[in-house]
Write a structure and sequence with these properties.
alpha/beta, 2 domains, globular, disordered N terminus, Rossmann fold, 386 residues
Length: 386
């Protein structure tokens, strides 16, 4: 046992079936590292990961969280409940006082360990509306598995000792769908990871390296191509802009997607796609002008706290955001850090933001989305779990 983690003073942070990615680094390993700066019991990451490329995944996670326990999970999602055995075994070895569990399935496993007396407290770290997300986007095409989620989500909401919600909209969803009536929760949105703590510099040089000239107005999308990202909707928004505003270009920092390919084919040289390591994303974003956070109106999106929102702002980018994206659409409207897009309404003529506008966006991000801003809430979690 490492001396920083004495047997009687440890809280575990459990993740299940999360892949290493920029989001995992900023919202898991960076959070664990930050919690360990606040005093009190130490927090250790326990990651149950796919057995496929297990050693590669373990190496990546340990590079960001050196004392993490990275274990191969029981194969096949339909057997997810069997992983509770692994969680209990870890608890018998490490004897934690409490467990912060990321997601409904991880929280269900943590509750089984609590039921056996292997820990005292469980915090459900809710990153979204799980049952709604599986129902709306069929994360796995298995009706029997999808049907389990409402019951699981209901249980972990009812039985956890504390809950972390990424938005006030998510708490309202709990109240409406599950009759959640408790007050034992904190709201902590997706905050900035360590990769975004830097000072802006050399914007024009980076633009030139990407092939942009000063007159170009560069719109950027950064993230995954998951269903909730609404690429068909995004294509419908961008096509009229590209046709009517010849100075606009669009950069996609994401894996290939048929909707992007079609847009690029119709607008040669003005729709670009690339993929860079997470640590390089801020420098690329900084060289762009306007960020895109356009999604369809679903429960998944109404309660969301998109990681990219804070990252875009930290890079000095005003955000074009859809209506009813978690708590953020109202923030954009009130704070003047972008514009709220109503579906079916064309975008106005776009311009490059001024230095003052960029500074305002960055200042808002650093004031509202650093982990330090939420230290009182993080300390509440540590106190309850210890």
């Amino acid at each position: 046992m490492h001396p920083k983690f004495p047997w009687t003073k440890v809280i575990l942070y459990l993740t299940y079936n999360d892949q290493p990615s920029g989001v995992y680094w900023s919202q898991v390993t960076d959070v664990v590292a930050h919690l360990n700066t606040l005093g009190g019991p130490q927090v250790r990451l326990v990651a149950l990961v796919s057995a496929r490329d297990y050693f590669g995944i373990r190496r990546k996670i340990r590079a960001h969280s050196p004392y993490a326990w990275v274990l191969p999970m029981v194969p096949q999602m339909k057997r997810w409940r069997s992983n509770a055995i692994l969680v209990k075994a870890v608890c018998r070895l490490l004897r934690p006082s409490g467990m912060i569990a990321r997601g409904a399935l991880a929280a269900w496993m943590a509750l089984r360990a609590r039921d056996k007396g292997l820990l005292k407290k469980v915090c459900f770290d809710a990153r979204g509306a799980y049952a709604a997300e599986w129902e709306e986007y069929r994360i796995i095409d298995d009706d029997a598995l999808i049907a389990q989620f409402r019951e699981v989500e209901q249980e972990v909401l009812d039985r956890s000792d504390l809950r972390i919600a990424v938005s006030n909209a998510l708490v309202e969803h709990w109240r409406e769908r599950y009759s959640y009536a408790q007050q034992e929760h904190v709201v902590i949105p997706c905050t900035l990871g360590r990769a975004h703590y830097w000072e802006p510099s050399a914007v024009e040089a980076r633009r030139e390296a990407l092939g942009f000239v000063p007159k170009d107005v560069v719109l950027v999308y950064s993230g995954s191509t998951a269903g909730w990202q609404s690429f068909a909707l995004l294509e419908g928004l961008l096509r009229p802009v590209l046709e009517a505003q010849p100075r606009t270009k669009v950069l996609f920092l994401c894996p290939p997607d048929p909707a992007i390919d079609k847009l690029a084919k119709d607008h040669l040289g003005r729709v670009l796609t690339t993929w860079v390591p997470p640590a390089e994303v801020p420098a690329v974003l900084q060289a762009c002008d306007v960020a895109l956070l356009v999604r369809e109106d679903t429960i998944t999106n109404r309660v969301a706290s998109p990681t990219k929102f804070a990252e875009y702002l930290a890079c000095g980018l005003p955000v074009i955001i859809s209506e009813s994206i978690g708590d953020f659409s109202a923030v954009v409207r009130m704070e003047g850090i972008g514009s709220v897009h109503a579906e079916g309404v064309p975008l106005p003529v776009l311009e490059r933001p001024t230095t003052g506008e960029r500074d305002h966006c960055r200042a808002y991000a650093l004031t509202h989305f650093t982990k330090e801003v939420y230290d009182p809430d993080y300390r509440k979690v540590l106190e309850r779990m210890s």
